[in-house]
Amino acid sequence: MSRSKKQPLRKCVVTQEMLPKKQLIRIVRNKEGEVFVDDSGKKNGRGAYLSKDLDVIEQAEKQNILNRHLNAQVEPEIYEQLKKKVQDEPQ
């Protein structure tokens, strides 16, 4: 009797949808207050998840959603990194 492992679900901070972790990008603020994109999904710190969707990333940027979630100033480079990541990823 093999049971498939349950997929960890996480909530996108923009759409509020619960999605499998693999469909989201994690952004982390560590103790030092640095904010970065966490490709491994395992870094220590306060994490926020975004859907791999350009519209969602742009909305997060416009509304400063990540700033509120992470209690930190999210630099424009982070959003550029996220956009590039989504554009490079095969749909």
Provide a descriptive summary of the structure in words.
This protein has three helices and five strands; from the N terminus they run βββββααα. The strands form two sheets. The protein has a three-stranded antiparallel sheet with strand order 4-3-5. The longest helix has 13 residues, at 76-88. The chain has one domain (9-88): YlxR-like (Hypothetical Cytosolic Protein, Chain: A, 2-Layer Sandwich), CATH 3.30.1230.10. The protein has helices at residues 54-62, 65-70, 76-88, and strands at residues 9-11, 18-20, 24-29, 35-38, 46-51. It is an alpha+beta fold and 91 residues long. A hairpin with a 6-residue loop joins strand 1 (9-11) and strand 2.
Main β-sheet, spatial strand arrangement: 4-3-5
Largest sheet: 3 strands, antiparallel
Q: Taking Cα atoms only, what radius of gyration do you get, to the nearest Å?
A: 13 Å
Can you name the CATH architecture?
2-Layer Sandwich
Structural class: alpha+beta
Mean pLDDT comes to 92
CATH class value: Alpha Beta
Overall tally of structural domains: 1
Total number of helices: 3
Order of helices and strands: EEEEEHHH
Assembly context of the chains: single chain
Q: Which strand-content bin applies to the residues?
A: 15-25%
| Unreliable residue runs | none
The CATH H-level homologous superfamily: YlxR-like
Topology:
Blueprint: E1 9-11, E2 18-20, E3 24-29, E4 35-38, E5 46-51, H1 54-62, H2 65-70, H3 76-88
Antiparallel strand pairs: 1-2, 3-4, 3-5
Helix pairs in contact: 1-3
